[in-house]
Write a structure and sequence with these properties.
alpha+beta, 3-stranded antiparallel sheet, 5-stranded antiparallel sheet, elongated
Length: 418
């Protein structure tokens, strides 16, 4: 089980979010706690009024709304409502909200079973509930005890395992929006928080593997100009099918603004794993006779690295992206360097004439070169040169000389002594 806690300034907005799901037949109110009468028999406005009245007891609390989601493993889709309600009650008690009024909703529009809890952090006596580090402390303790008591899939152990994502079948799009959204959400929930990508293109390199694509629209479209984003299912030929679904309609809220924040963070997070891909590519060429990009892909995938090719309408390769399923890092070939970009790989495969105009470099790391080329008598000269260049990682100084050393020597006049 994974618990996500959010606070906000408007309890009305999170209440309406869940109630609107009920009207759309995508959720149901399965219970309430500390309401004077059963909440399901109350009018929608009265259910909200109790929460608002309790918030009014302390006007100094600016972010008084509490919105919690308890997320379960996809294998636990048959948990009965009574058990879900019992789990919610135990959880709220253990994090210090046992005496608070709250509503529990079960949602049916995601790829995994989950419930939402709506409450406030102002007590009946007007005191404020301290939520500082509640996620790291009380929530984590409650989660572990609940998993053990109810026999749930343990969240920590599932993180250590390889994320198992099933490609979406294009036939899902024929069943209607609900089924399509569930299928897309299942992939998004597994990919977006876990993989390290720095552009929409790199994100799509992963999503496309599971028959999903992120759409920004054409540069002249309103969608692109307003920084909109949608997700759509792809068929086996990687062609879009069904209706695109707005990013804002998913609970994860994987909108462009959210992704752009991840782009910035991921640039730093993925750097330690850059060499793993470069070394894997180099060793693949050293130890094998590789003639095509497909040959290289077949070797790399054994180590958890997938090559995603980008080709134009004529089938000409113009780009490569490496998806490392072990480290969850995504890199465009050009980021890794020329020997790992599309043209560089084709040169190493012998599909393109090798560029002999590369600058000679005086100093090399002999030890690393020897280690990489041991027992590699079958490697061609052009392949060796590409690997050789990749090891250098030197920065051209363009014959730079500082001003201090550029001062002209004074000419001495004939006949004058020092």
């Amino acid at each position: 089980m994974v618990a996500v806690i959010n606070t906000g300034s408007s309890v009305r907005s999170i209440f309406n979010y869940n109630e609107n799901k009920i009207e759309a037949e995508k959720a149901e109110l399965i219970g309430d706690v500390n309401y004077p009468v059963e909440a399901s028999v109350l009018h929608r406005d009265l259910r909200l009024k109790l929460l608002l009245k309790q918030l009014e007891l302390n006007s100094n609390v600016k972010r008084g709304s509490v919105h919690i989601s308890l997320n379960f493993d996809s294998s636990e889709s048959n948990l009965p409502k009574e058990k879900l309600m019992e789990i919610a009650t135990v959880y709220m008690e253990k994090i210090g909200f046992g005496s608070q009024p709250y509503l529990v909703y079960q949602h049916h529009d995601a790829g995994h079973p989950h419930i939402h809890i709506v409450s406030v952090k102002v007590k009946s006596d007007g005191k404020r509930i301290d939520m500082n580090n509640i996620g790291k402390n009380q929530s984590e303790t409650a989660r572990r005890k609940i998993e053990k008591a109810f026999g749930l899939v343990v969240a920590q152990s599932s993180k250590k395992e390889k994320i198992n994502i099933k490609p979406v079948k294009s036939i899902v799009a024929q069943y209607g929006e609900s089924e399509t959204k569930k299928a897309i959400a299942n992939v998004l929930n597994a990919v977006i928080p876990n993989y390290k990508y720095t552009t929409v293109g790199e994100l799509n390199a992963v999503l496309n593997l599971y028959n999903i694509t992120a759409l920004q629209g054409g540069k002249d479209s309103k969608m692109f100009q307003h920084k909109g984003l949608a997700y759509q299912i792809l068929n086996d030929k990687k062609q879009p099918v069904g209706v695109p679904i707005k990013a804002s309609s998913f609970y994860l809220k994987p909108i462009l603004k959210y992704l752009e924040l991840k782009f910035i963070a991921n640039k730093t997070k993925r750097n330690p794993n850059l060499k793993r891909i470069k070394n894997a590519v180099d060793m693949a060429f050293i130890q094998n006779k590789i003639k095509t990009v497909s040959d290289l892909d077949a070797i790399l995938i054994k180590g958890g690295i997938k090559i995603v090719e980008r080709r134009n309408e004529h089938g000409i390769l113009y780009g490569l992206t490496y998806v490392d399923h072990i480290t969850k890092c995504v890199f465009k070939g050009s980021i890794l360097g020329k020997p790992y970009a599309a043209s560089g790989i084709e040169e190493r495969c012998g599909l393109k004439e090798f560029n002999t105009s590369r600058k000679a470099v005086a100093d090399i790391d002999h030890k690393e070169l020897i280690d990489k080329t041991q027992h590699s008598s079958s490697i061609s000269g052009s392949q060796l040169q590409m690997i050789f260049d990749s090891l250098l990682q030197s920065v051209s100084t363009a014959d730079y000389i500082s001003k201090e050393f550029k001062r002209k020597k004074k000419r001495r006049r004939k006949g004058l002594n020092d």
